[in-house]
Amino acid sequence: MRIDLHTHSTASDGTDTPAELVRNAAAAGLDVVALTDHDTVAGHAEARAARPEGLTLVTGAELSCRIDGVSLHMLAYLFDPEEPELARERELVRDDRVPRAQGMIAKLRDLGMPVTWEQVAGIAGDGAVGRPHIATALMELGVVRSVDEAFTTLLSSDGPAYVEKHELDPFDAIRLVKSAGGVTVMAHPLAVKRGRCVPESAMAELAAAGMDGIEVDHMDHDAPTRARLRSMAADLGLLTTGSSDYHGSRKTCRLGEYTTDPEIYGEIVRRATGAFPVPGTGG
């Protein structure tokens, strides 16, 4: 069974519509795919309606968090999307995305790059605007050669064009997701090229607060980093997942490039009470 628990659609910063994403997931030979757009569940209904027979859909979101000045992303799975407190927090984060993007564009223009809000907004369309849309604009202008280069040189948390946005305290995120019946997994915890990473001591505190797992097998983790994270997860009693972090054509990762062990997936489903997978043969 092939399980990919981290993907994005045009509801946030991917290039596939939710319908295209589930069709592409089935075509890629996946049995289970999770739709985890940034701070939104807007793509879930379309993905459900378009889900090919035999593909199981896991509903989720990737929540923007910050601890001690360091950004982190918390994957939330199978929570009740109508739970009011968590819904309010997602809305606060989404509402801050536009002024944050406009602030980053202003910094880029100060650096001599002719990117405009109109260009970035056109790329984002109806999705929740974010740094990948700005990175795509910079590619279109020939400023950078790839989204990864834009992040590395300009848009990372240490980059000259970075602007902070409203982000959840991760301890609150864990509490809210659990109150909504969901399961939490920290995304790409040691992806150093994205900027500063959460220290291991903070990961231990989050595990003690009820975080369920960490994403280990990811394109931004090399082999030694994956081994380190597996050891850490074993010490902390955390689940370990693997995922593509697929964004369509915006990034080079492929659906199913990394996958999650079926037993781990089964434990995630067992722990969830807020929602259930939309079943295919993946269960």
Description:
The chain has a 7-stranded mixed β-sheet with strand order 1-2-3-4-5-6-7, sandwiched between helices. The protein has helices at 18-27, 44-50, 84-110, 117-124, 131-140, 147-155, 170-179, 200-208, 223-236, 262-271, and strands at 3-7, 32-35, 56-67, 70-77, 183-186, 213-217, 239-242. It contains 10 helices and 7 strands. With 283 residues, it is α/β, with parallel strands linked by helices.
Distinctive features:
283 residues; alpha/beta; seven-stranded mixed β-sheet; 40% helix; 15% strand; globular
Low-confidence stretches: none
Q: Give the ordered list of helices and strands.
A: EHEHEEHHHHHEHEHEH
Straight-line N-to-C gap: 10 Å
Total number of strands: 7
Counted by DSSP, the helix tally is: 10
Gyration radius, to the nearest Å? 18 Å
Portion of residues in beta strands equals 5-15%
By oligomeric state, this entry counts as: single chain
